[in-house]
Structure to design on (262 residues):
């Protein structure tokens, strides 16, 4: 373990992850273009820190996740995995995600752990020709970072099965037809489009946005009766909030709402 920690500290000094604030949106960029933004412990730790910043900063309402260079991410750094195992904190990161909305801006490719990282996000903006895949079976693994479950939730079962069993990717255009990609762009335009989409999210009442995301994520596979039970607590909290009163007042007064997140 000490060697892994030392490696993380060394890599973090090389800015393997970049963050930039654009109004109420935090743009998070994977920055290992020489190795196709492969995910190692330094990336995993850096992402966890960036998402914590997004969660804890009340002035930030949404995030965008993108990659530097010619693609989003080719997945787990197999050299690092061979030497040290899974990236530090990876399982917790990929399971926990973020309560605030995340938009993935995908160019070139999002493969294996890279696609699983994108699937942690809520919305996809992808350039035409971008390859999306979970090729883990071709290297003796399977998509254990949420890829199996999350692809089945967001794609037809037959499409998800073909991706997992053949290890062959699909193009963003095909993914858009199946509803996985929200917006298609030309290459080079995904980040600006993703920031615009995140900005639209950030303009809405933050408590209501977070409650909507949480309910939509948690109601998958639930009965309608179970859903109504899930909805009760967040509904009461949102209705009792200052933002709910502000929303009604701004509508009646024909002015822009001023959200406080309270």
């Amino acid at each position: 373990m000490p060697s892994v920690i030392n490696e993380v500290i060394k890599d973090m000094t090389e800015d393997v992850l970049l963050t930039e604030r654009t109004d109420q949106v935090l743009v998070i960029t994977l920055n290992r273009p020489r190795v196709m933004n492969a995910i190692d412990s330094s990336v995993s730790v850096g992402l966890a820190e960036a998402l914590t910043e997004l969660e804890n900063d009340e002035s930030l309402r949404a995030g965008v996740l993108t990659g530097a260079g010619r693609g989003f991410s080719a997945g787990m750094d197999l050299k690092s995995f061979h030497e040290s195992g899974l990236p530090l904190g990876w399982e917790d990161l990929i399971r926990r995600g973020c309560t605030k909305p995340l938009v993935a801006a995908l160019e070139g490719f999002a493969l294996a752990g890279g696609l699983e990282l994108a699937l942690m996000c809520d919305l996809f903006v992808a350039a035409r020709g971008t390859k999306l895949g979970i090729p883990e079976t071709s290297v003796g693994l399977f998509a254990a970072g949420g890829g199996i479950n999350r692809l089945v939730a967001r794609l037809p079962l037959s499409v998800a099965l073909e991706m997992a069993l053949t290890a062959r990717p699909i193009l963003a255009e095909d993914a858009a037809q199946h509803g996985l990609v929200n917006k298609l762009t030309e290459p080079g335009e995904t980040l600006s489009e993703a920031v615009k989409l995140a900005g639209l999210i950030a303009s809405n009442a933050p408590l209501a946005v977070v409650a909507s995301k949480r309910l939509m994520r948690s109601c998958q596979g639930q009965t309608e009766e179970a859903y109504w039970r899930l909805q009760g607590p967040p509904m009461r909290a949102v209705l009792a909030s200052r933002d709910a009163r502000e929303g009604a007042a701004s509508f009646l007064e024909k002015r822009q709402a001023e959200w406080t997140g309270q």
In short: The chain is about 50% helix and 15% strand. Confidence is low (pLDDT under 50) at residues 1-13.
